[in-house]
Amino acid sequence: MLLCDIGNTFLHFYHKGKIWKEKPYALTKKKEGLPIYYISVNERFERCLLASHSYCINVNEHIELKTQYSGLGVDRKAACRAVDDGVIIDAGSAITIDVMQEGIHLGGYIMPGLESYKKMYADISRVLGRDIEPGVDLTQLPQNTSDAISFGVLKSIILMIKNTSRTKKLYFTGGDGKFFARFFEDAIYDNTLVFKGMQKALQKHI
């Protein structure tokens, strides 16, 4: 089974334990006759997949989740389906934090991703257009502008997650998930969460 998660930047594929990403306008040809089961949050990139591969099946409607949250993205639903109890943090272009308890989605929120923070500061002033330094000391008050920006960004994200998680297990995924996971004891980084959720949901329908 070949799975595909169509996001707003890349198409992520999963097949036999292997994960890779491709740009929407440079998709490689997949094995003839192998169906691609996909979810999508980007209609334009979805059309790219359909134009280059004839055997594609949209499974958005099969990714069901018990929740009162209105408008929850299908990628977030899929990641949540993979975890019955815990906090799921998908750290990509945006950072989404969702709370699961006994198979029920209690709610969640969205924060800017690291690159988005960087652009936001640059929009305020060219002087603030600095890279986010992952190695900044978060135990000491910063003494220069570069460290101050990095400190403010990272500390705010980390404290929000800590406040949300309390005693729940943390599950990180996404491009920056591995980086953030190191700030939390016993946190789990799993870049297959979305695909695990897709597989779990599809077991009922395929």
Automatic annotation (TrEMBL):
Reaction equations catalysed: (R)-pantothenate + ATP = (R)-4'-phosphopantothenate + ADP + H(+)
Superkingdom to which the source organism belongs: Bacteria
GO biological process terms on file: coenzyme A biosynthetic process
UniProt-annotated binding residues for ATP: D5, I6, G7, N8, T9, F10, L11, H12, S93
Residues given in the record as K(+) binding sites: D90
Catalytic activity, EC: 2.7.1.33
GO MF term set: ATP binding; metal ion binding; pantothenate kinase activity
Cofactor(s), names only, from the UniProt record: K(+); NH4(+)
Record note on cofactor: A monovalent cation. Ammonium or potassium.
Keyword Transmembrane: no
Main location: cytoplasm
NCBIfam families in the record: baf, PRK13333.1
Function recorded in the entry: Catalyzes the phosphorylation of pantothenate (Pan), the first step in CoA biosynthesis.
Family recorded in the similarity comment: Belongs to the type III pantothenate kinase family.
Protein name (Swiss-Prot/TrEMBL): Type III pantothenate kinase
Species this protein is from: Helicobacter japonicus
